[in-house]
Amino acid sequence: MSSFIVEGGRRLKGSLRPLGAKNEALEVICASLLTPEKVTIKNVPDIADIRNLISLLADMGVKITTADHHDITFEAKEIDLDYLKSYEFRTKMKSLRGSVMVAGPLLARFGQAVLSRPGGDRIGRRRLDTHFIGWQKLGASFDYNSDDKCYNIYAREGLKGEYILLDEASVTGTANIIMAAVKAKGETVIYNAACEPYVQQLCRMLVKMGAQIEGIGSNLLKIRGVEYLHGATHTLLPDMIEVGSFIGMAAMTQSNIRLEDVGLNDLGIMPEAFRRLGVNMRSEGDDIIVDQEDIYEIDSFMDGSIMTFSDAPWPGLSPDLLSIFLVVATQARGSVLIHQKMFESRLFFVDKLIDMGARIILCDPHRAAVIGAGRFNFLRATNMVSPDIRAGIAMLIAAMSAKGTSVIQNIGQIDRGYQQIDERLNRLGANIIRDEGIGE
Fold first, then answer.
1. Residue 398: exposed, middle, or buried by beta-carbon count in 10 A (0-12, 13-18, 19+)?
2. Is the pTM of this model over 0.85?
3. What is the pLDDT of residues 183-225, one digit of tens each?
4. How far, in whole angstroms, is CA 57 from its chain's centroid?
5. Which residues pair with 6 in a beta bridge?
6. Is 44 in contact with 25 (CB distance < 8 Å)?
7. Which one-letter DSSP state was computed for residue 78?
8. What is the number of alpha carbons within 13 Å of residue 368 lying toward its C-beta?
9. Would you place residue 57 in the very low, low, confident or very high pLDDT band (cuts 50, 70, 90)?
10. Helices then strands, each counted (H, E), the chain
């Protein structure tokens, strides 16, 4: 089990450029299955989840060419549909959550798909009902193979457009239904659709490929199915979760950092939420500068009540950011309630922060109250194990601000979402040692 050995208390200085958005990459890479022509995706991050998905597509028969480190071309001219029934395919699907999005394109183009239970973070219940209900509305049927523990999905008579009111604004569910609908006969209307920037980007790429989609950026999409989609070139947005992670890291380490080309227009409420947490930051062009601040003070609501940060559909705060907000609040002055509505296991890492000296009350699986004492209550170094990507980066931020040297094990979870995070931060003055042997 690989580990990070982190020397805390070091201030950072310099510039960081966020890499391409992981969640968008998972969607648009899967969308390349919709056409036999070449699809080139630029600014692809070199992280574990993306590598696993690319490996899965290669095993399915997709030809993959890397022009340089971050530009990748996919050519799904010949797909081995028999491979979908193999044990190897099911095993690879279980290795990452994003694998669920191969099903929509396969169903649209070939009229069949196999869906094994996808992997990903163990952060609570992550149901797939929205995906299946949408496909059923479009005319697909499915059966469950209890021996192989997978679903066989069919559209023997093709998919047909339909009005679909989503039971929840699921991002992956919306993306999967969109990718199925772009080749369905007639018009599909999707209401209560997720409208995150990554879903917008998927729609824009599909339009470049010849799809007909109206309402991009809203929660009401109208899709007129087409018979054929051609190739395209698409550039990923900067990863907003990386941006938020680096803002929180700069605040916690009392550092001065410039974040370059962050895609300000696609960050939603996140910058203002950090300001309400007391983080001193400003923008120049498309850059964000986090200024060094010894003490940052949490805002309160206008009536004087305690500030609450909770996740919400776009343009609200992403649930992936709440772990970062929580750890930053431990060293702020003031109190805040972190309300993680979506996942019931994402706050369980706070016991390690409490061990480090943070004053946190875990009210229930969804809510944590943080009582910040400014810098009068420094965090202490400790040993930790990362349970998922976002808790892992929160632990790294805590360790970088703590007194002493901490060890974070199971950093493969962090590597799933952050490319060479140790090397990038060390260039700014951090002292993070990657050890491949600790914990084995």
1. buried
2. yes
3. 999 999 999 999 999 999 999 999 999 999 999 999 999 999 9
4. 20
5. 406, 432
6. yes
7. S
8. 28
9. very high
10. 14, 23
Peptide bond connecting 315 to the previous residue in cis, omega within 30 degrees of 0: yes
CA pair distance 265, 142, nearest whole angstrom: 40
* Structure tokens that stand for 74 in this block: 């996919």
Question: How far is 186 from 49, CA to CA, in rounded Å?
Answer: 35
Q: In the chain, helix, strand, coil percent, each to 5? A: 35, 25, 40
Q: Please give the structure tokens belonging to residue 61.
A: 């028969």
Residue 440 clears pLDDT 90, i.e. is over it: no
Distance in angstroms (rounded) separating the CA atoms of residues 381 and 120: 28
The dihedral through the CA atoms of 242, 243, 244, 248 has a sign that is positive
Question: What does the alpha-carbon distance between residue 402 and residue 380 come to, in Å, rounded to a whole number?
Answer: 5
d(CA 201, CA 283) in angstroms, rounded, equals 24
Amino acid in position 161: G
- How would you class 140 by CB atoms within 10 Å of its CB: exposed for 0-12, middle for 13-18, buried for 19 or more? buried
Record the tokens describing residue 200, joined without a space: 């917008």
Q: Are 67 and 46 in contact (CB under 8 A)?
A: no
Cβ distance 8 to 400 under 8 Å? yes
Neighbours of 138 (CB within 10 A): 24
Handedness of CA 166, 170, 176, 179 (dihedral sign): positive
> What six digits make up the tokens of 195?
């409208």
Beta strands 212-214 and 3-7 are: unpaired
The span from the CA of 97 to the CA of 85, in Å, is: 19
* Residues recognised as catalytic: 121
Q: First and final CA of the chain: distance in angstroms?
A: 5
Q: Answer for the pair 175, 187: CB distance below 8 angstroms, yes or no.
A: no
Per the CB < 8 A criterion, the answer to whether 115 and 154 are in contact is no
